[in-house]
Amino acid sequence: MNLRRYFLPILLMIAGRVPAQQKTAAAAPGTVLKNITLIDGTGTAPRKKVSLVLHGNRISKIIPATAPLPAGVRVIDYTGKTIMPAMVNGHGHLGLIKGNKSGPENYTQGNIMRQLKKYEAFGITHVLSLGTDHASVFPLRNASRRGQLPGAVIYTAGYGLAAKGGTPPASFADKALRPETPEEAVKAVQQLAALKVDFVKMWVDDGGGALPKLSPEVCAAAIAEAHRLGLRVAAHVYYLEDARRLVADGLDVIAHSIRDKDIDPALINDIKAKGVYYIPTLCIDDYGFAYAGQPAWLNDSLFKASLEPGVWEMLISADYKKQQQDDPAREKKINAFHTAQRNLHKLDSAGVKIVMGTDSGAQPVRAQGFSEHLELQLMVEAGMTPLEAITAATRNGAQMLHIDGDYGTLQPGKKADFIVLKGDPSKDITNTRKIAEVWRGGKRLPKLK
After folding, report:
1. What is the β-pairing status of strands 74-77 and 31-38?
2. Which residues neighbour 332 within 8 Å (Cβ) at sequence distance 6 or greater?
3. Do 181 and 214 contact (CB within 8 A), yes or no?
4. HSE-up of 90 (CA within 13 Å, CB side)?
5. How far apart are CA 261 and CA 238, in angstroms?
6. DSSP 170-203
7. If we measure between CA atoms, which residue out of 311, 254, 302 comes closest to residue 281?
């Protein structure tokens, strides 16, 4: 493919947008969001009756609501509103879903851009796409990171590493690299490093015992080479013993819950001591069996708005409900979900760094936008406090992406990226769904149509 020709429209758009953005930022007056409840993302208790002072694209001050205001600023009275940082999705996928289908045939520039805007409209402003991307993601990622594209900012693992004939199938992850020896693993990681991926992704899963799995030798070689080249590694896991081995090999991110067994203190201590991030993705397990009944969110307007056309109708159909009811793996899926919840509670209680991630965008039922809010609810139901769940979705995610100098918390000097809510999620985590507005860089965004 001639990438220059393919991306010429984007390059022209970028060339036209930059000066205008710079002018706007320079000329923007100060703004005060008055009389709010502030959840700053650090895990500390909400600050009530304060005002957020913005200058340009950053937060300049946080002051009592009764304090004198700087001269000449624009004042917006947000009495009754709560503001929290915009969220980071530490495990998502871009460009795959369209309608009720999912696959590489949907991977187009237009579809990716549409999904980035959707994430942003739901308050998710950074997303790590783990392993199912195509070559076109890299120029998009670069433009996105420079602030030259609308929507959530892209981070990518490019092409994940998977077993030959294993999960995910080639029909889904058509660009995945499938090393069979340690030498091939080293070459695969070198290929990814040349593309300047943000992470290396490995799928370490045998599909319930039915498929091949990356060998321990291949995984160890990939992790060692990634670290030699300054890259970090995230792994799709299911089994406790795989997680134990990968952590011992130096894995940086466990990108799904351990679901076959309860985690033991020795592995918890190892994960914590090595600073491994843990992304539970509880919602994907919940989606695997919840529609056999009547999940509470099924008629939620935010849920419906997040779905692709035709998916809600599929989910409420008698055929889909019966399919889930008759699923021979249903009991195993339910047990795996409860094991994941227990393991999350143990890890969080031990002080392991938890990051919110959802695997949204991989399948139509994993709706981009709503899944992230549902994940917060499921994390709380697993035993985390609402503030802990919010911190996992904000500060911790930003730390994992190494962007916490600017994002993830609402403090003086940080970027003014946040969600304005009609309720306080520290009291009820489902209040994160009551989105009044989303702000990026000190500007209120128009609502997604």
Report:
1. parallel
2. 208
3. no
4. 36
5. 9
6. TTTSTT-B---SHHHHHHHHHHHHHTT-S-EEEE
7. 254
Q: What is the token pair recorded at 409?
A: 């918390």
3-state secondary structure (DSSP) of residue 411:
coil
Give the angle subtended at the CA of 441 by the CAs of 439 and 446, to the nearest 5°.
40
Phi first, then psi: give them for residue 246, nearest 5 degrees: -65, -40
Rounded distance, CA 154 to CA 125, Å?
A: 9
Greatest extent of the chain over all pairs of C-alpha atoms, in Å: 68
pLDDT of residue 71: 85
316-343 b/e with 16+ CB inside 10 Å = b? eeeebeeebeeeeeeeebbebbebbbeb
The DSSP element (H or E) to which 218 belongs, if any, is helix 216-228
Q: CA–CA separation, 421 vs 261, rounded Å?
A: 38
Is residue 207 helix, strand or coil? coil
Three-class secondary structure of residue 301 per DSSP: helix
**Sheet strands (E) in 111-262:** 124-129, 153-156, 200-203, 233-236, 253-254
Residue 8: partners with Cβ closer than 8 Å, 6 or more residues away: none
**Sheet bearing 153-156, strands edge to edge:** 87-92, 124-129, 153-156
Bridge pairing between strands 82-85 and 31-38:
parallel
| Tokens, residue 33 | 């969001």
Distance of alpha carbon 399 from alpha carbon 145, whole angstroms = 16
The two three-digit tokens of residue 137, written as one number: 């993601």
pLDDT at 4: 40
Q: Model pTM greater than 0.70?
A: yes
Q: Which residues of the chain have pLDDT under 70?
A: 1-29, 448-449
Number of alpha carbons in the 13 Å side-chain half-sphere of residue 298: 15
**Angle, vertex CA 142, rays to CA 136 and CA 145, nearest 5:** 130
Q: Which residues pair with 88 in a beta bridge?
A: 126
What 8-state DSSP symbol labels residue 70? P
Integer Cα distance of 318 and 303 in angstroms: 19
Domains and CATH numbers, the chain: 23-85+409-444 (2.30.40.10), 87-400 (3.20.20.140)
Neighbours of 149 (CB within 10 A): 22
Position 421, amino acid: L
- The predicted pLDDT at position 448 comes to 63
What is the sign, positive or negative, of the torsion defined by CA atoms of 254, 265, 385, 85?
negative
What would the two tokens of residue 107 be? 């991977």
